[in-house]
């Protein structure tokens, strides 16, 4: 049992590390290509990999789900989440964008009550408020340094959090590989539709880096840039396998804490590849956000363990 727990934690940490490699890859091409082209190439590369994974996991018949509507809705919410996150990292230092994105677990806990009918304690709500204080420390309103792209990262976290609550609702009948396949389809379809809409509207340029990354026309990529975009497809597929394996081997409430190891990698990639040095307020705000998330996860773990202890005492 302990070996499974250790292996699960290692798989999850490695999955988080692998996923984090997408951020510098996307940021590296954000100055010359549109986000829709990056997502389309990523989705095309990931498609055959996901087909193999679905076939090995539950069989391709599982793609013809009775919950097609919910799967599709969730997939396009994920598409929106990742699109606005990529737009954020085009304008923000990686450390800032990722730290703000780590509000997602707190959003999940706050929304679990109204969406899933789960009881949300006052302690959980208090940790959400602590996380919001961390956001304010990072954004420094009134300091003259606020970039509205930070709101994109926060919006991405909220959308991602809601999509994970949807996954909890439909996960009783749908596998993670099927959900990932639908997500990939939404990335490809959404990218083509959004790019086509801006092309038909004749919008090809914007001043802000995030908007420019959105509306820029597609161009034939140079080989090094194509390889960076294509690598995102392999990275996403490998990351999904590792994360799924981590949650399969160990209880979710034990390993979820290790999702926060992602905050270690983004400042490192930002420094190594883009010479970004995190500000003191970024580190303080990130510490508050992570600390709030860890407190909330620990509280949820204790509450879930209490009924089991009570049942053990009754049996004795």
UniProtKB/TrEMBL annotation:
InterPro entries: EamA_dom, EmrE-like
Domain of life: Bacteria
Signal peptide: none
Transmembrane segments: 38-56, 68-88, 94-113, 120-139, 145-165, 186-206, 226-243, 255-274, 280-297
Keywords of the record: Membrane, Transmembrane, Transmembrane helix
Coiled coil stretches, renumbered: none
Residue ranges of domain EamA in the record: 7-139, 148-295
GO cellular component: membrane
Any Pfam family hit: EamA
UniProt name for this protein: DMT family transporter
